[in-house]
Amino acid sequence: MFDIGWTELLFLGVLAILVVGPKDLPRMMRTIGQYTAKIRGAAREFQRSFDEMARESELDELRKQIAEVKANNPISQVKDAIKHPLDSVGKALDDAGKPLSGLPDEMVSDAAEAVAVAQEPLPQEDAESPKTDAPKTDVARDAAQ
Fold first, then answer.
1. Angle at 90 between CA 84 and CA 93, to 5 degrees
2. CA–CA dist 111, 122 (Å, integer)
3. pLDDT at residue 145 tops 70
4. For residue 50, is pLDDT > 80?
5. Which of 133, 134, 100, 140 is nearest to 117 (CA)?
6. In this model, does residue 35 exceed pLDDT 60?
């Protein structure tokens, strides 16, 4: 790492014994070891937090991709395409019995008469009564059909 050979280490050891002294050298080596451990721990923590941030950013990108896939899901698009026309058909069927708004009163009353005629039971023909081909009124004929 530092390209220090055995001769340099021997020179540093002799220098440390001369400067610090043989009595305090073990305490100094212990202190240097503690500081080295603290520096390594801080470097590990920095690396861990950096890796965590990278993982979170990758997770955010993955979440965005999943959301895009859900939004562009062809199955849900087909369901929506089928659902909307069926809803409008059901609404049209529900509104079929209601008179249209904005029609003149005469047309609404004619439509009500046609509904009343259509709901009346058909007269039973007697065997004794002669059959006549009397034309029915337009409203009654439309209602009968």
1. 145
2. 19
3. no
4. yes
5. 140
6. yes
Measured CA to CA, the distance from residue 109 to residue 136 in angstroms comes to 19
Q: What is the pLDDT of residues 2-34, one digit of tens each?
A: 677 889 988 988 998 888 888 988 999 899 999
Q: How many CA atoms lie within 13 A of 8 on its CB side?
A: 4
The Cβ of residue 36 has, within 10 Å, a number of other Cβ atoms equal to: 10
Taking the domains of the chain in order of start, what are their residue ranges? 15-96
Please report which confidence band the pLDDT of residue 102 belongs to, taking 50, 70 and 90 as the band edges.
Answer: low
Q: Is 101 helix (H, G, I), strand (E, B) or coil?
A: coil
CA separation for the pair 103, 114 (Å, rounded):
16
Token readout for 31 is 């202190």
Asked if residues 117 and 142 have their Cβ atoms less than 8 Å apart, the reply is no
Q: How many residues does the structure list for the chain?
A: 145
List CB contacts of 103: < 8 A, sequence separation 6 or more: none
